[in-house]
Amino acid sequence: MKLGKLTDYRVNGQEVILDFEGREARIWVVTPYIINVFCGEDGNRPCSKAIEGDKMILVSPKVCQKEDGLWIHTGKVSVRVSDGFYVDFYDENGVEVCGDYRGERRPLQRVSKEVLKLLEEEGHAAQDHRQEHAFEVVKKMDASAHFYGLGDKTGFLDKRSYEYEMWNTDNPDPQVDSFKALYKSIPFFIALGKEYVYGIFLDNTFKGYFNMGQESESYYWFGADGGCLNYYYIAGESMAEVLKGYTYLTGTCPLPQKWTLGYHQSRWGYVTQEDVEEIASSMRKNDIPCDVIHFDIDYMQDYKVFTWNEERYHNDPKAFLDRLSKDGFKVVVINDPGVKVEEGYEVYEEGLHGGYFARTPEGEVYSNVVWPGEAVFPDFGNPEVREWWGQHQSFLLEKGVRGIWNDMNEPASFRGPLPDDVVFTDEGRKAEHREMHNVYGHLMAKAAYDGLKDLDGRRPFVITRACYAGSQKYATAWTGDNTSMWAHLQMVIPQLCNLGLSGMPFVGTDVGGFGADTTPELMARWVQVGCFSPLFRNHSAAGTRRQEPWEFGEEVMGIYRKYVKLRYRLIPYMYDLFFEEEQTGMPVMRPLVLEYEKEDAARVCNDEFMLGSRILVAPVVHPGMTKRMVYLPEGVWYDYWTQEQLEGPVWFIREAPLDCCPVYVRAGSVLPVMEPQSYVGEKPGDILYLEAYPGEGSWEHYLDNGEDFAYRDGKYHQYHFEVKEDGMVNGEIVHAGYDKPYKKVLVQRAGEKEWKEINHDR
Ligand code: GLC
C-alpha cells in the first residue's frame, strides 16, 4: 500500500499515529513481540472476529525520528516506518527480518485480447492484468524463505512459490495443488529463513490473496478486496514462539472431553436406527475400539435443522441413544446452517419473526438452495441470532446427543454463490456478504460452542468445516470432502500440519476418503495416518464403497484393529498434548520443521510428521510400497516396533509391509499409555502405565475428569516424570487437585516385557 510522505506523527501510549500527507496510518505495539500495522478509511477498527479481549501488554516503546525514517523500539523488535508507508521489522540486534519490497513488481505477461478470451473460456485466470485489490502489502523474500500455515490449503507443507486465496469454498471437485481456496480462511503464515523466523497475521475477513513468491523470486505479497490494512507482525526466537504469539492473539483450543480423542465412525448413509445399531454392534463384535458414531443429514426430518425423523428411530431416539451410551457410544449429529423455507416449521417461523435471516439489499429475506431445498441463512454476526441458535441445540442434547457437527457453513449453496451484497450483521452494524462470508462458519461455531457450554456444562464438542482465524477456540475441524485417492492420503500430512501451524490443533480428515471408492490397501494405509491425527474419524459419501473397518477382509481389518488399538493406547499421551496446547498453542500433530527448524530436511518434509515432541511417524502413502525412506532428525531414536536404537540425523530405508507404519520415539521419553479398552473410560484407569525410552528427558502428565471445566478451578493432577540414561523413571506430583488420582504407576523400559511399580509421591 503506497501512501505519501510521512509528514508527522504522534505517540499515544503504545499507539503511534502516522500522518502520510493527510492519510493516517497507525502502529500499535501490542506486546514487545507483536506489532500491529493498521490503515483504515476513517481510522476505525472493525471488531476482530479472531481476537477476543484486550491483548495489549504494557510496553513503553521508544520512538525516534531519524533520517531513514521513524523508528519504534520495543526492546525485542524495532520497526522502521518511512515515506510511502514502508514498514520494516528488525530484530533486537538490529538485523532486518521482514522488510517491505521497494523495487518494481514483475510485469505480467501480456497476451492479445483474443488469446485472453480463449484462456478465460478454458477456465484459466486472466494473465495480462493484475487485479486491483483494496490494498496489497509487498514484502522482500530471500532465497532461504519457506512459508507455513495459511490454514487448510492443498499442496505441500512449504507454501513458497504458490498463490492462495482466502474465500471459504466448497468445491466438490477432487482437491488438487492448483486449488487456491478450500473451506477455511486463516490468513496467518510463518516465514522461516536461514537466520530468521516471523509470523504475519492479516486480520481482514474480505476475500484475501496470498502470493507467496509465485509472482517473483524477490518478493511475496498479500492483500484483500476490502476492509482495512490490518496485519500483525509476530516475532519470536523460533517457530514455536511465533505460534505462541499468534495463539496468544487468537486463542488456543480448549482441552476437549477425553472421549473425543477416541475413534469416530461415520458415513453419509446411516439412515435408520437399524443401520446405526449394526455399526455399533459390529464395532464391539469385531473388537475395534470406538467411542463415537456420527449421524449425517438423514436423521433429520426432510433435512430440517433441529428436527428428528423419529419414525426411523422407532419413535424414540432418546431411548436408542441411551442404549448406545450404555455401551460406551457417544452420538454426534450434523447441523447445517440452511433453514428450510416451510410455513409452520418452528425454526423458520421464529427466525422470520425475529429478523434472524440474511437479507437482500432490498430488505427481502434471502434464500438459496441447500439440502432441504429452498433455505434461508441465519445471520450469525448478530449476537441475538447466535444465542437463539445455540439454545435450539437443547432439542438435540435432550435426546442424548454429545456433540454437534457444523457443516455447509462456508456457507455452501447449490443455486450459485450468495451474492456479495447479501446483508448480514456484524454485531451492531450492517455488513455485506463480501465481508461476512469468511467468518460465517466461525460465528456459527461460536454460536454452537457458547450454546452447548451454557446448556450442558461439559466441554462442548463442535466440529466445523468452515473456519476463520481463531475458530480453534470453539471447534475442532475436519478438512471437508476429500477423495479416496492416494494423492489425498499424501495431502493429509502437510494439510493437517499446516492447520496446526495456523493455530488449529484439533483437526482430522475423512479417514479412507469421502468421495469415490477406497481400496483395501488405501484404507489400511490411511488408518495408519488417521490413528495419529488429532481427530480420528472414518467418513464417506453416500453411494461410495462402504468403508467400515470390516469391509475389506480379515487382513485389512486386522491392520485396522491394530492401529485403532495403538491410538487408544496413546490417548493419555495425546491428552497431555492437548493440555500443553491449551497453555502454549503448540499443535498436537506437528511437522518436523516445528521441532527441528534448523534442519534443511525437516523444512520440506511432507511425508513424515510428529505427534507431540516425542513420536515421529513415517507412514507409507504410496500404493505398492513396502519399504520407505525415513529421515530421523538429530538425536537418538527408538524404533517403536523393534526397539532398535538409531542416531539422527540419518536417512535410511525401513521395511514397511502393509501392516507396518514406521514409528519412532525419541530417547529420553516417558509415554503415558492406556490399557486396552473398547471406549474411553470402559476400564477404571486407576493405574498409569508409562513406556520409558532411556535417555535424559522429562514429561508432564496431566489427569482430570476428562469432561467438564473443573480443571480450570485446579481440579486436576499434574505429574512430573524424569527418565535417565539407564531408563529409570522418577515421578512426582506437582499439582494435586483431582479426587481420583492414580493408585499406582507402572513403568516398562523399552525392550523389556516387565512392568515395575514406581513411587510417585510428592
Ligand atoms: C457435505 C459434508 C459431508 C457430508 C455431506 C452430507 O458434503 O462435507 O461430510 O457427509 O455434506 O451431509
Give the arrangement of secondary structure elements.
Blueprint: E1 6-12, E2 15-20, E3 23-31, E4 34-39, E5 62-66, E6 69-73, E7 78-82, E8 86-90, E9 96-98, H1 113-121, E10 135-140, E11 146-149, E12 163-166, E13 184-185, E14 188-192, E15 197-202, E16 208-211, E17 219-224, E18 229-235, H2 239-250, E19 263-265, H3 273-285, E20 292-295, H4 317-326, E21 330-335, E22 339-340, H5 346-354, E23 367-370, E24 373-376, H6 383-392, H7 394-397, E25 403-406, E26 423-426, E27 429-432, H8 433-436, H9 440-456, E28 462-464, E29 467-468, E30 476-478, H10 486-501, E31 507-508, E32 510-511, H11 520-530, E33 536-538, H12 553-569, H13 571-584, E34 589-590, H14 592-595, H15 600-603, E35 609-611, E36 615-617, E37 627-639, E38 645-655, E39 663-666, E40 669-673, E41 687-693, E42 697-703, E43 717-723, E44 729-736, E45 744-749, E46 756-758
Parallel strand pairs: 13-29, 19-20, 19-33, 20-21, 21-25, 25-28, 28-30, 30-31, 32-33, 41-45
Antiparallel strand pairs: 1-2, 2-3, 3-4, 4-18, 5-6, 6-7, 7-8, 8-9, 10-17, 11-14, 12-16, 14-15, 15-18, 16-17, 22-24, 23-24, 26-27, 34-35, 35-36, 36-39, 37-38, 37-39, 40-41, 42-43, 43-44, 45-46
What structural keywords apply?
762 residues, 29% strand, single chain, nine-stranded parallel beta sheet, alpha+beta, binds alpha-D-glucopyranose, eight-stranded antiparallel beta sheet
In short:
The chain is α+β, with helices and mostly antiparallel strands.
How can the largest sheet be summarized?
9 strands, parallel
Instruction: Give the percentage of residues in beta strands.
Output: 25-35%
Report the mean per-residue pLDDT as an integer: 96
Distance between the termini: 58 Å
Low-confidence stretches: none
Taking all Cα atoms into account, the compactness measure Rg is: 26 Å
Principal-axis shape equals: globular
Helix count, per DSSP?
Answer: 15
Number of strands: 46
> What structural category do the secondary elements indicate?
alpha+beta
Query: What topology, given as strand order, has the largest sheet?
Result: 31-30-28-25-21-20-19-33-32
> What level of helicity do the residues show?
10-25%
> What small molecules does this complex bind?
alpha-D-glucopyranose
